Amino acid sequence: MNTSELTNKFYDLQSRLSAYRHAVDLIYYDGATTAPKASAENRAHALGILSEESYKLSTGDEMLTLLDDLAKVRDELSEKDRRCLELAEKEINEMKKIPLDEYVAYQELIVAAEDTWHSAKENDDFASFLPYLEKIFAAKKRFAELCAPDKKPYDYWLGQFEDGLTTEKCDAFFETLKARLVPLIESIGKAAQNDDSCLHGDFSDEKQLAFSHKLMEIMGIDRNRCILGTTEHPFTTSIGSHKDVRITTNFKNDNFASSMFSVIHEGGHALYDMGSCDDLAYTYLDGGVSMGIHESQSRFYENLIGRSEAFINYVFPVLCEAFPEEMSGHTADEVYKAINLVTPSLIRTEADEVTYCLHVMIRYELERAVMEDRLEAKDLSTEWKRLYKEYLGVDVPNDRMGVLQDSHWSGGMIGYFPSYALGSAYGAHILKKMREDIDVDACISKGDFTPINEWNRKMIWRHGCMMKSDELLESVLGESFDPVHYTDYLEEKYKKIYNLV
Ligand code: ZN
Question: H or E segment at 247?
């Protein structure tokens, strides 16, 4: 075969793999949203078979021979073809080190674990989830040892979510944040407190749903390619390619802000996913490049835009229209201060921007300790409570609001959490860069997201996985990433809100 025949065959195989991914994504989405309660086993059956087929296609002779042949003509390939090859080689070389039966058993384990996590959280029953959690941690350690025996297992998984991330880098990053955030939290604690009563009331699902659709419209999300569902834990998923994206939220009837910021957060993920160039669909290059960059986009829209004074001033009349009785007598300034209330709390997804990273650090410490065999999964609940007391000074009343609150571990996403803090910090540096080109506040004040979205599309979204995450970030920033822009942003914003000198 000549080079062009080889690349055609390579794209054909990637396209076939994406069809399996499409089916798998849809089954997971269905399981989290509308599938009947007792159907997990049924899904695990189909997922087991689909993952076996896709494993065989990825690691079969046809693909391995093709990768070898393509590697021989690497210099003749286009930039796009070369990058596809690089990503395929990385993924497939690692995948084939995991025996097929273990690979399939793991996919089935995840379905059962997610299903059990739902009921465990509902019933505040950590013990029922524990056997799954133990198996997940064991599988993660084993896979890391098989795929990258030269790396520490936890470092391997950190690197799967963010290129080149290690515990050493995480430690340095978190220390930088702590040094600035802990004193800031202390001075805010001593300042006169704002109240958040304007966020509370009786907000029906119907009204919140209508408001969520309005938010998605304001954000410029293409509704022909993105729908909104409801789940216990909000998330975003692409189905097969960036051409079909699903986001979810969770309505709390006594507080509209919980779902509001989930919708904006997941909407940020959706914009990023949907922004890939169309010719990247059905290839290794489609969608977001890493979870750190993904979170830089979701937390950018959620916080840097969504919790800004300019946005709240713009959205306040929309809020009043959505919840006329509940909002009557309140002002935009009250809402701005309420949604930026800094208070140590129990739930990460509802935490304010200043204490948020402490929630992430707790999860990082815990999962790292289990991966390094310094802590057993059965002790996670107790350790969770101890660290919340130490870091945030709060008492965790139950596991539902503690160790069972996030869905990540049940989905096998160990090593994901640091991406949230990194992404938040990337976002602040990206905003500083964006401000050189765009009057961001002026756009937000008018509810005009187009220039902001177009900037992100040009600099970040359209590239998909063409660059590694660190290369992409550096190309956007024009300099090395520096977390100081994040701590500067937080200090400046919150000193103003809390009248601190
Ligand atoms: Zn997110």
Answer: strand 241-249
